[in-house]
Design goal:
Layout lengths: L2 E8 L7 E9 L2 E6 L10 E3 L4 E4 L1 E6 L38 H7 L2 E6 L7 E4 L1 E4 L5 H4 E3 L4 E4 L2 H9 L7 H28 L7 H10 L5 E5 L2 H14 L3 E5 L7 H6 L4 E3 L18 H7 L4 E3 L11 H10 L4 H6 L3 H6 L17 E4 L10 E6 L2 E7 L2 E4 L11
Parallel strand pairs: 1-4, 1-5, 6-7, 11-12, 12-13, 13-14, 14-15
Antiparallel strand pairs: 1-2, 2-3, 5-16, 7-9, 8-11, 9-10, 16-17, 17-18, 18-19
Helix pairs in contact: 4-5, 4-6
Length: 403
Amino acid sequence: MNLAITGGYVVPVDGDPIDGGTVLIQDGKITEVGRDVAVPERTPVVDAAGGWVLPGFVEAHGHLGVHEEAEGWAGQDTNEMTDPNGARLRALDAINPADLAFGDALSGGVTTAVIKPGSGNPIGGQTVAIKCWGRSVDEMLLKEPVSVKSALGENPKRVYGDQKKLPSTRQGVAAVIRDAFMKAQDYKAKRDAAEAEGKPFDRDGTLEVLVRVLDGELPWCQHTHRADDIATALRLSDEFGYRLVINHGTEGHLLADTLAERNIPVIIGPLFTSRSKVELRHRSLSNPGILARAGVELAITTDHPVVPIHFLVHQATLAVKEGLDPADALRSITVNPARIMGLDDRVGSLKPGLDGDVVIWSGDPLDVMSRALKVFVSGREVYSYADGEPVVADPYYREAADR
């Protein structure tokens, strides 16, 4: 799709704002961003005068499509809570693009989401990055797998403790993870030896995924809230040498200096919830600012549907109110989550070569009264708000020429 968005206050995020700027999109990719951009003939033009133009927001940790809204048990595919080690499981195989949450995401300027299995298992499965508009998950696919989800703390020990089986304690959860990685190390050695000798080898889907983590191909997204569990996450990553990403990090501010020194990113949130369990005792909107000031690379998450996906930007706004720098707030929902999850070659900012995922806002998106007026995914208009009515383009009824 070709498109020129002109006349708006362009905020590339990874660069200085441009008043009266133009974003040129050709074949679905951004080709130019600037003030004096020559728009080729016959290129459709959208006038953004009076509005703010930003990249689509990136949700780094959500459950859109696997925990469907208003569907009850029928739409609940977040956790396969029958095996503590679910590394072979893929969120990709459970996403329903018809989930109402995808329309909500667009209304909140969110164009990309990393969908993760839940936190019921010590090892939950593989995550996937998708665009928030499309007929099938395969059309929406941005990258798969993106990482492997793992959980420490209350959730897995409760799930399996209720079943009267391992793991029912924090030490049991850590043991399950440690045992899995040791098996993966042994598996890799046997597999490599068999390959070198030209011998057949029985593959194991679970261990193949964990070997990719050990080899540094896939980061380890560690669900963890309490500071002691964060310390366990650090300890395990030291033992096995994988790339660690802290997810939730409710008490990450208590170890902010350690996380910064070790370049461990934190995907923090959800921030609008009650303190519904012991792990959330120190949940606070001031924590993102503490982490950012310490030098921690920070992304903010809704953990949708825990917090509705279209409130992602509002969490950033209220974090600003409690001390987070506004520039850091915008980065925490754009370029930072894209970089943390290895997607910054496609999304997260406005610059040539990236996908044409652009949102026109009525004003500063950190102002709670601003709203997304138009949303483009790869240069295609997929959402608009006019005359008090939000409209999501139906992906099942495209013009024949577009198919």
